[in-house]
Amino acid sequence: MAANRGREHWGSGFGFLMAAIGSAVGLGNMWRFSYLTAENGGAAFVFLYILMLFLVGGPVLIAELAIGRGAARGPIQALGFYGGRRWKILGLVFVSAGFLIASYYSVIAGWTLRYGLEAIFVGFDPKPAQHFGEVSTGLDALAWHLVFMAGSLWIVNNGISSGIERTSIIVMPMLFVVVCALALYAATLPGSGPGYQYYLEPDFSGLFSRKVLSEAAGQAFFSLSLGMGAMLTYASYLDRTSNLPVQGGIIAFSDFAIAFVAGLVVFPLLFALNLSEDVTASTLGALFITLPKAFLELGIAGRIVGTLFFGALVVGALTSLISLLEVVVASLSDVFTLDRRQATLWTGGAAALLGTPAALNIAALDAMDQVATNVLLMGGGLALAIFTGWVMKEPELELIAGSKRYRILKVWVPLLRYVVPVILAFIMWGSVPKALKAVAALF
Ligand code: PHE
Q1: Exposure b/e, 45-82, CB count within 10 A at least 16 = b
Q2: Sequential DSSP letters for 253-306
Q3: Cα–Cα 20 to 30 A to 350, which of 29, 186, 198, 207?
Q4: For residue 41, how many C-alpha atoms fall within 13 Å in the half-sphere facing its CB?
Q5: Residues lining ligand 1, Cβ inside 6 A
Q6: Helices 75-83 and 58-71 meet at what angle, rounded to 10?
């Protein structure tokens, strides 16, 4: 169908996959996943997460890929293309979500960069909790946020194949190797056994509460970069020979695999060093406080392992942030016919500004995260499922161009029509008020 002529393209299918996996794999995998797993019943949560991937994440991922490739435009124009003017509003919500997430994500990414460089050049601070308190908010945090944002913009400015694709092809395989190597190292530590037990022993009590279900589905969305058009935008640079169902499967599986292996690094490490009580500390802080404690105790090995760990986090965060920025850049260029350089400058300047409150006040960062994940991503996913299932004509035709009629695809539209909306509405009933409370508490 009407693919835009002259639009940029991925250099190869592999390049697209690395970029899409790069978007998916980020802070969400390296910490959020293992933390949530520990909190919500170990292997039982992993099971529920996989279920949510199949029932909710997978169908929405495939919908984004099909719409993006079919329309060959950013989210606003793509939804307008298939649904008429009214649906452009949903595209606008997507772009706003991408913009909001990019702003605070860059603040956290700035912390990871600082920790990575400190690990190399000065070692870990002997008082990790105090250190985190000092560097996570205030002018320091602001400066690192700006540095990280500038680096990401530079890559985005270089374009799809020579910026985003080239970066992802180099760094994603490295990230994969490093995370696996770290998991092997963690297995050699004496006393790591109970860590595996804690992580992997199922505890089925309370599994089907709304809270646990909500965490599992929310994580599936955040981790797969769904509900804000990142996958849609990346797919808009594909051609019609690519096999979307298979590519979607590879993206979802890789995202899960890296999260799972990251858990095999974190838990054995913390248990081997008797830091297991710290596991239940706050999500974000714990990564930056407990792990440095562990790395400190391991001496020189810890410095190497810590450098690799934070290096992997930097890479994960970088490839995710560039996908967030690309959503906004692609839309600005589509809607206002700006060139890439102008669109990148506007996006970056505005995102740097919006990230400032998050850098100066951690409660603001938390509130932004809650609104983004629980309201915008889930709401975006819900609306997109309804759009694809009920409004779009023959979505299967867009999906299967370039692939086969896999039998499993028969359930795709029914899932989007009935299952995804019901599950997401049920979850949002509880999570939206919570997010709004976090915002209200700021004022
Ligand atoms: N998926 C990324 C992560 O796990 C975060 C992200 C969310 C990126 C939404 C893009 C869009 O860290």
Answers
A1: bbebbbebbebbbbbbbbbbbbbbbbbbbbbbbbbbbb
A2: HHHHHHHHHHHHHHHHHHHHTT-GGGGGS-HHHHHHHHHHHHHHHTHHHHHHHH
A3: 29
A4: 19
A5: 23-24, 26-29, 101, 222-223, 225, 228, 230, 320, 323-324
A6: 90
Are 311 and 219 contacting, i.e. CB atoms less than 8 angstroms apart? no
The DSSP output letter for 206 is T
Looking at residue 283, what is its pLDDT?
Answer: 58
Q: What is the pLDDT, as a whole number, of residue 284? A: 62
52 C-alpha to ligand 1 centroid (Å) = 17
* 297: Cα within 13 Å, side-chain hemisphere: 13
d(CA 121, CA 175): 21
Can you tell me whether residue 125 is helix, strand or coil?
coil
**Interval between CA 174 and ligand 1 midpoint (Å):** 19
Q: Return the CATH architecture of domain 13-361+393-405.
A: Orthogonal Bundle (1.10)
Mutate to test the pocket of ligand 1, among 103, 179, 225 (most ligand atoms within 8 A of CB): 225
Residue 243 CA to ligand 1 center (angstroms) comes to 23
Residue nearest to atom 9 of ligand 1 (CA): 225
> Tell me: the pLDDT tens digits for 129-151?
899 999 999 999 999 999 999 99
Nearest Cα neighbor of 406 from 58, 1, 56, 24 is 58
For residues 66 and 251, what is the distance between their CA atoms, to the nearest angstrom?
Answer: 14
- Taking Cα atoms as reference points, which of 293, 261, 267, 262 lies closest to residue 280? 267
Residue that is written with structure tokens 């985190």 in the block? 132
